């Protein structure tokens, strides 16, 4: 620590105060001031407003989550807010509070939470006001870059969803594959007249291979957004049975879906291992040579097909709300030529690869910011003034 930084306590740097009680019936848009609660900025109210800039800390739930508020606000009693910055830079205080591990604090009742008096006793180091402003400017620049990258990812995701909707229904096509500009009306809506409308049973077959010998194979789980994942790696703990002899084998390039929960979008494509295991509550199938797997997988992961699965589940004769192969295989899909399927899949893969790179960039930016906070807020690296 640099010798000209002040070693003190948080209570000497600022004053925290608990937010105000507000009946639930009044937590609505009654005024022009944001209400800040454990969920962030959630509504509006015009009583007991706090003038900006404001810094708010969650007392419960995700302990120590910190918000920087730039307009008049109304803090709920589930939060602490900085009542007095005592002449310090508010934005610096925001980053200082972000760097504190509030998990170590708890209410005297034993309920995990951030207690104001305990927080006031926390030791901190305080640079001069000039250096506070410089540190805040550096870290806020990091935050702006993170925000812009987050917004870019959201825009790219939205673009991909729109592109999927157009490409997978034939509303947008590539000229080399167009043999007719006409459309045909089918059970699943309008599709190009040179496409086919077929049921899944015509392009895939049900697979039921059990792990009867009890082989020690990786166990997979199916997630709504990520498809099939290695269960241990994804969840960080074992959530499957010790006895996997009743589990189903899902081979490389086979599909699996949660028979009882497919309406949630729980369908995946196996690209992780030559052979793996899946819960017996899943249905496994594989396609034939007239369909490109990545095209079909993209189609089945759309919101349109999630809704189709939901309707099919509701109409199923199985009263347990499952969608077994007999009903699933009757679902219709639009099918262009194999070459067009491959091309569409490649375009969507390119979108996915771009999103992966942007997500990695975002993670690196967040890590970079954390590293800078660690260096700048301890004086190990000095912000030039």
UniProtKB/TrEMBL annotation:
GO terms for molecular function: DNA binding. Pfam families: Methylase_S. GO terms for biological process: DNA restriction-modification system. Residues 4-154, 260-365 form the Type I restriction modification DNA specificity domain. InterPro entries: Restrct_endonuc_typeI_TRD, Restrct_endonuc_typeI_TRD_sf, Type-I_RS_S_subunit. CDD domains: RMtype1_S_EcoAO83I-TRD1-CR1_like. Belongs to the type-I restriction system S methylase family. Keywords: Coiled coil, DNA-binding, Restriction system. It comes from the Bacteria. Transmembrane segments: none annotated. This is Type I restriction-modification system subunit S. Residues 348-375 form a coiled coil. It comes from Ktedonospora formicarum.
